[in-house]
Structure formats: structure tokens, C-alpha cells
Amino acid sequence: MSKVYLDYAATTPAHPEVIKTMLPYFGEKYGNASSLHSFGQEARSAIEKARKTTADFIKASPEEVIFTSGGTESDNSAILGIAYANQERGNHIITSSVEHHAVLEVCHFLEKRGFKISYLPVDNYGMVNPDDVKKAITSQTILVTIIHASNEVGTIQPIAEIGKITKTAGVYFHTDSVQTFGHLPINVNELNVDLLSVSGHKLYGPKGVGVLYIRKGTKLVPFMIGGGQEDGRRGSTYNTPGIVGFGKAVEIANLEMVEEGQLLSGLRDQLINGLLSKIDLVKLNGHPVKRLPNNVNISLAYVEGEATLLSLDYEGVCASTGSACSSESMGPSHVLTAMCVPAEQARCSIRFSLGKWTRQADVNKVLEVLPRIMTKLRGMSPLYNKTSKKAS
Ligand SMILES: *Cc1c(COP(=O)(O)O)cnc(C)c1O
Questions:
Q1: pLDDT digits (tens, 9 = 90+) for 224-251
Q2: Domains of the chain and any CATH numbers
Q3: Contact at 8 Å (CB) between 208 and 70?
Q4: From atom 4 of ligand 1, which residue's Cα is the shortest distance away?
């Protein structure tokens, strides 16, 4: 049975070109990029090429880009770095109630250590209101951190509008753009962000490498202290294969992103409309238009998310319930809860995330198997049978 992978938001396979580009840096090109001899300089120039490619891609300059171990490290180092470097200016941080755990848990961590955190509410589509950001800013505010687009429900936040507000107020602005970088065009100046987090394995690059964009002049303490790499902003020997692979992934995104987004949003809408018409008691989560081109998140009443996922997997369809991280912790996701999705509906939310190798046949397959699975699972639900009998 051929498998249908629809979990690209959890991770993407590395592009074959990315793997090909990385391989020599595990083998013959093994130099430490900090070494002065030719082996070192060969690695160094490959890293600087990747840095330039990345900077150009978001309209930044190369000195404003550092390489990290991934999205989690970039989020952690942005928030902790700003918090500890700007404590004398204030102790207030503004975030949203729909952040990734790599932001949310850092805010909880700081809250226990004397910082004040405002968790802004969202509307039913999961959208932050820029006016709420404006109202929440006080003389003590040092940082606003808002996710660019939700990994769970795909809603794209009004980052440029929020950026105007933070710029006027003189407050640092960070965005977790792990789900958008390489998928939507990003211009750090149009967005008015000071810090931006990226992860390689969400754009067909390798796992364990990411980027943090740091606008020139931003006051940040380093998160990793060591041998002075990245101009003292992040110690540890450069991950040459990872960085080179990341750079290749950005090159490919630069060429393919726009057309790919158009194709995927077409398939996305087909999947959404098909599910809404073929299954009863189904609801789309997230914004109908301002959403990632690859995200489909639905709630199915009278079934369990886990049972639905396992049945899908049995039919060869790989999807996800909640986010990849929260599927280990039961209970409704914090994102759906913040959007006021009722708990019983949030329990059976399924996310399909499409990607570079998703084809029409994959969408057709889901539209064929999921209605069948629903009939079977709901057939076993006394509550559903009672309700549907009453309705007929
Ligand atoms: C995947 C993801 C992360 C974490 O990135 P890692 O590289 O896996 O640490 C952070 N934020 C968002 C929105 C993500 O989707």
C-alpha cells in the first residue's frame, strides 16, 4: 500500500538536492569553520554562502543571521536573550494564547522568575487583534512575541500591523516564523520584526538546524556561551553539513515557493470543501482565507481524534491530531481552547498538512477513506446514534 503523508507541518523530508549538498561536509570537507587552515576555510566559505542566501531571502544583511539548532533554540534564545539583556528597562512581555510550546513554555518559565507576561486572546479564527497589542503595551514592556502562522490551525497573524505598533512604541518584536519561512515571502523590514525564528526541517532542510534573525542594534544576551562563534552570539562548533543543507533548502524555496503555494492552496481548498460536503458534523478550524496554503484542520463531532488517526494510518494516511508535540499530552489543545472551540469538538480535531510531494490522488484518497471511517466509528457511538435518530 502506498502511503499518503499529510503531516508536513510536523516535519518535511529533506529534499534530495539538500542531502546531496550536505554529504561532502560529513566526509572529505570536514574542517572546523573556525580553523585558519584550508580545511577550515573551505567550511567557513560554505557557511557564509548559506548565510548570504538566507539573509537575501528575507531582505536582511548576513550579519543579522545566526545559525542555531532549530526552531526551539531560536525561540528560546530570542525571548530569554531579550528578557535578560533588557531587565533594567522593564519586565513585561506580551505574547498570544496560540503560540508554539517553544514560546509558550519559555514565557511560563520567565513568569515564575519575576517577569510579567500578557497572553493576548484570539478570535474564533485564532487571530490576534493588533489593537489588543497596542492596549497591552506599558512603560515596562520590553518584548512582543507573536507566532507568524499557527502550526495547528494555519491562521496567519497580522504581523506587519503589529510591527508598526511595536516600532512606534520602541518595543522589541519577535515572531516564530517556522511555519511560514520558505512557504510565504518574508521581508523583515515590511514586517517590522527585530527577531525571527526559523527551522530547517519544516522547509525540506535537515533536522537540528535553524536560524535566528537578529536586527542590527538589538540588545540580546547569548543563549549558548562558548568559543565565540557567530560573533559571540552563539557558541558551539558550526554545524557545517546542517547549515549547508539549510542554505540549499532556501535556494530551492526561493525558486519553487510561489508556484508551490498556489498548487497547494488549490489542493487544500479541494480537501476542505470535499470533507465539508461528504461528512456531517464537521467544522473547519482556523481562518477561512488568511491561512497557510498547506493547512487543513477540522473538528469531527462524536469521534475521538486518536481513534480517527489510527484508522487513517491503517488506511495508509498519515495525519496528526492537535500538534505533533501535544499528541503526547492528552486533553484539548491550548490553541483550540483559546479559539473557544468546545472541548468535545477539540478532542477530535485532525490536521492534514500538505507539502511539495502532495498530489491530487492523495486528496482523493482522504476524501474516499475518511467518510468511510466516520461511518464506522460513529456507528459505534451511542451518543451519535441517539442524536442522529432524534434528528431524523
Ligand atoms: C516545529 C516548530 C517549532 C520547533 O522547531 P524545531 O526545529 O523542531 O525545534 C517551533 N515553532 C513552530 C511554529 C513549529 O512549527
A1: 999 999 999 999 999 999 999 999 999 9
A2: 4-10+257-380 (3.90.1150.10), 16-253 (3.40.640.10)
A3: yes
A4: 71
